Amino acid sequence: MALKATIHKAHVQIADMDRGIYAAHALTLARHPSETDERMLLRVLAFALHVPADDHRGTLDFGVGLSDPDAPDVFQRDLTGDILHWIELGQPDERRLQKASSRSERVSVYSYAASTPIWWAGLVNKIDRMDKVAVWQIPAESSAELAKLVERSMQWQVTIQDGTVWITDGPRTVEITPILLKDRRTKYA
């Protein structure tokens, strides 16, 4: 018998001072049996970093996760069904990023493993002309600390200011400063 996904609930209050977005979101996360807590919580981080101020152009949603390797991890779909923003976690290859670029207006990648510099060195020249793609590195120590906040029911306050993210669950706080490796429309940050 196949293992079932584990359901987690997250109530996330976001204060994004960089974009002027202040909102509360009730999220339901299905963690695939092969997905780590770290990766699941990075989906929440990506959500907080990219949630739109309103739903006039659609909402930000979680993909079906590891059960469908062709789907984005997080995405914003407009009211016609077109994908506006495709968000990937991990270390996708150039073919996957090309596919994501052809299916959406913009692509964001968040790599969080200690091997990110090696992956990036092999990819940087291959995606040089992909104007829609932005690549970020989450320091491995920060993502490991984030994984320690996992619970079946989570209450988070997420504050974003000057590119730094503070995630607090009450007694614990994790500080994450994503490192921009490649910005959209430019070669390198």
From TrEMBL:
<dbReference type="InterPro" id="IPR011335">
    <property type="entry name" value="Restrct_endonuc-II-like"/>
</dbReference>
<protein>
    <recommendedName>
        <fullName>YaeQ protein</fullName>
    </recommendedName>
</protein>
<dbReference type="Pfam" id="PF07152">
    <property type="entry name" value="YaeQ"/>
</dbReference>
<dbReference type="InterPro" id="IPR038590">
    <property type="entry name" value="YaeQ_sf"/>
</dbReference>
<dbReference type="InterPro" id="IPR009822">
    <property type="entry name" value="YaeQ"/>
</dbReference>
